[in-house]
Design a protein that fits this description.
five-stranded mixed beta sheet, about 775 residues, Hypothetical Protein Ta0175, Chain: A, domain 2, six-stranded mixed barrel
Length: about 775
């Protein structure tokens, strides 16, 4: 206790515990409680006498206004460990009872109810009947506590109830991850909220989930959740009837009407945990809560175009959903009018023979992104090992997987302070930064390249000159001081100027946009993928006369390694190849929507009717020798996508080129004409092989070789005075020096050490 707080006597302490004051926080609250107890026991004179006695002891203790206004007294008193002995004082009050209407049959005393609510180590309320009477979490209004025995309501003063305090028998409610409050009947509460959502009383974007194991309710209405529509089922009957479907077909009902009328609702991943969803109408029973509109609706657009995806392993489906976005196709119909920074266009996109209903619903056929390949599953001389593929050169020459790449360049005549402006023109030879005359060969008089001109890396597309960056950078007239700032073709790219567009910027300056077109025919290293996550690169372009052929004279476009199928469990591709083969023979497309009825028997029948084996295998003959191959080869039709990962955009080599200003090492990156990184592991490999000279060549001679002058006396780097043509040491003066080959980066390190006042001494010695 604080020194200024007087120590209570035994009688005063009895009075505190008798009234249950260990949870009360002010003197006024004590007086209020005493008056309430006097009213309750008004008919019992002995009890009133005892209350008055203890009330006097309270007044004795609070003998000054200072103490009455000091709340810290109660803080200190609550810390008194002896308060746990309250029961020992109880015997003093025997014989003082209520009248028959007001007293408990078992107790001879009014229990300090507030004590029961607080005198627990973990703040958990033990009596559930009392819990029911407590106001909701965080409520600061007056709390009504019922006496358990006689239900006599006694008004207690306000009590601070923490939101995070555990409530026995109650369910926590979280909204968007934040604890909101508690609920006594979670099942009915959840049911009521869902009914309100279906009736339109609350937003249909709200989702509620009750986890019985955790006894927690989660409510989410934040954006970004994946939600999908389901038909609501009650008592085993879907609310969406044939009558509704007819109205939809006639245009009388729209999708929004179905949601507003509570026939369909969107569930997120959380609420699906509380749902029992039937895949189809035939399996529906009274336990089901929802019915799938179509099983395929659980898939997105990218995953929905995969045929027979329910036969693939999930990682392959996930992989394909990502690769679909990388596939080349007809991305827009007005590509000729656009100036996208970079764009790929497949020349002859085809609609897939094996399709899904999601392909129909998304109008994928209008913007296809692949072609139907005749595929054979077989090894070919090791050229298609792992994920490599052998492709038919004859097919490529006929236009298979051919595409165009568009790159747009643009610049404008900017205006600068002081009236200086950029200018489109063929730069004069006297201009700073003038390139070779060959670079400007395709420019017209206005400084802009002519359409249909063939351009290569470094060729100027838009001739442009700009004023100097700083007016003090040179002398002479303004015309003499202009610098060359032309737009050139990117390093490593080439093509034909497809379009030249001249316009104006918002500021009114001239604007020029150039679109360069490059035709891309598949080559070694180009990436392809089926719709089942079977990605691979071209390992061999085989002459058409060497490609194996079937007895009907069919030559496959693509030869894929058969080991790629069983290990990855992409059985969907096998089914697609068989279904595609049957579709070609019958001249019709095959619906391969996942979770659909089995098409196997029908496909088998179609193949047999057309003179093929039902399993899809055929006898193949070597294109080199003409001999029949021993094994039967699985041949079918699959939809393959050409991805934008092409060798032309990635392959790179350099002999010489730009270096960094600071370290004098070659620049990094293909776009900056940089060198190839020679890393730690490459270095370790050369060390392990003892290739010392190769290591020196890579890391010194072809990198940042520097000839330093070292003082014989002190080992410091010496200086070469160009004016006097003299070498000297800054410390020792005119002494003997020796040239030493070091890395320029090492020389920078020595300079750094000198700046830290560290003496880097180089010890010289003769070469072995």
């Amino acid at each position: 206790m604080l020194s200024r707080i007087k120590k209570p006597t035994t009688d005063e302490r009895k009075a505190f515990y008798y009234f249950g004051f260990d949870a009360i926080v002010s003197y006024n609250e004590i007086i209020g409680r005493i008056e309430e107890l006097k009213e309750v026991a008004a008919s019992n004179d002995k009890f009133v006498e005892r209350v008055n006695e203890h009330a006097e002891n309270i007044e004795f203790y609070f003998d000054s206004d200072e103490m009455k206004n000091d709340d810290s007294i109660f803080e200190q008193f609550n810390k008194d460990k002896r308060r746990q002995k309250w029961q020992s004082y109880k015997k003093d009050f025997k014989g003082f009872e209520f009248s028959a209407d007001e007293i408990s049959s078992e107790s001879t005393d009014i229990k300090p109810v507030e004590e029961e609510l607080t005198n627990t180590t973990d703040s958990v309320v033990e009596d559930e009947d009392l819990v029911d009477a407590i106001a909701p979490a965080g409520d600061e209004e007056e709390i009504i506590v019922e006496d358990v025995e006689d239900r006599k309501e006694i008004a207690l003063p306000p009590r601070q109830n923490k939101l995070h305090q555990p409530r026995r028998g109650q369910t926590k409610i979280y909204i968007n991850g934040e604890l909101l409050g508690y609920c006594k009947d979670p099942v009915n509460f959840t049911k009521e909220m869902r009914e309100k959502r279906r009736n339109g009383e609350i937003s249909y974007e709200m989702n509620i989930t009750y986890y019985e194991d955790n006894n927690e309710i989660y409510i989410f209405n934040d954006p970004g959740r994946a939600r999908r529509p389901l038909i609501i089922v009650k008592d085993g009957i879907p609310l969406l009837t044939d009558d509704h479907l007819n109205k939809i077909a006639n245009g009388k009902l729209k999708w929004d009407n179905l949601i507003e009328n509570g026939l369909i609702e969107y569930l997120d991943a959380e609420e699906e945990e509380n749902s029992y969803i039937s895949m189809n109408l035939a399996e529906l029973n009274e336990d089901h809560t929802h019915l799938e509109i179509d099983p395929a609706t659980m898939l997105g657009i990218c995953a929905g175009i995969i045929p027979f995806s329910d036969h693939n392993s999930s990682p392959r489906n996930t992989m394909e959903a990502g690769m679909t976005k990388q596939a080349l196709g007809l991305y827009v119909s007005n590509y000729a009018l656009r100036t996208d920074t970079r764009a790929h266009l497949l020349h002859h996109p085809q609609t897939p023979i094996v399709k899904t209903r999601i392909i129909d619903s998304t109008n994928y056929d209008l913007r296809p992104s692949g072609q139907n390949f005749v595929v054979a599953l077989m090894s070919y001389e090791g050229y298609n090992m792992e994920d490599a593929m052998v492709i038919n050169k004859g097919s490529l020459e006929r236009g298979l997987a051919r595409s165009s790449f568009f790159r747009a360049y643009d610049t404008s005549e900017k205006r600068y302070a002081g009236g200086q402006v950029d200018k489109f023109e063929v730069p004069d030879k006297n201009i700073k930064g003038y390139r070779s005359e060959e670079s400007y060969r395709n420019l017209d008089e206005d400084g802009v390249v002519n359409p249909e001109s063939y351009v290569e890396s470094g060729d100027v597309l838009i001739g442009k000159t700009s004023p100097p960056r700083f007016l003090e950078e040179d002398f002479g007239t303004v015309a003499d001081r202009r610098r060359e700032t032309s737009v050139t073709v990117r390093h490593g790219e080439k093509g034909i100027v497809d379009a030249v567009l001249l316009s104006e910027t918002v500021e009114g300056s001239r604007l020029a946009k150039i679109r360069v077109r490059d035709t891309r025919q598949p080559e070694f290293g180009d990436k392809f993928a089926s719709r089942h996550g079977q990605k691979g690169v071209i390992g061999l372009i085989l002459s058409p006369e060497d490609v194996p052929f079937t007895e009907f004279g069919v030559v496959p476009d693509l030869i894929v390694n058969p080991h790629a199928i069983p290990s990855r469990m992409s059985i969907g591709q096998v089914l697609e190849m068989v279904a595609g083969k049957a579709g070609c023979l019958e001249g019709e497309r095959v619906d391969a929507t996942p979770f659909n009825q089995a098409l196997e028997d029908e496909i088998k029948k179609q193949l047999i009717d057309n003179g093929f084996e039902s399993a899809g295998c055929e006898s193949l003959y070597s294109g080199v020798t003409g001999e029949r191959l021993d094994a039967e080869i699985f041949v079918g039709v699959a939809y393959y996508q050409k991805l934008h990962h092409m060798t032309t955009d990635k392959v790179y080599a350099r002999s010489r080129g730009p270096v960094q200003v600071l370290t004098r090492q070659p620049t990094e990156g293909r776009a900056r004409e940089g060198g190839l990184r020679f890393g730690e592991m490459e270095r370790d490999c050369l060390i392990a092989h003892g290739a010392a000279l190769t290591l020196k060549e890579r890391l010194l001679d072809e990198s940042d070789k520097y000839e330093a002058i070292v003082c014989e006396n002190c080992g410091m780097l010496a200086v070469f005075d160009k004016n006097k043509n003299k070498k000297y040491c800054p410390i020792c003066g005119d002494v003997e020096t020796y040239p030493v080959e070091i890395s320029y980066a090492f020389k920078l390190l020595l300079d750094e050490l000198k700046s830290l006042c560290i003496f880097p001494k180089l010890v010289l010695g003769d070469k072995a």
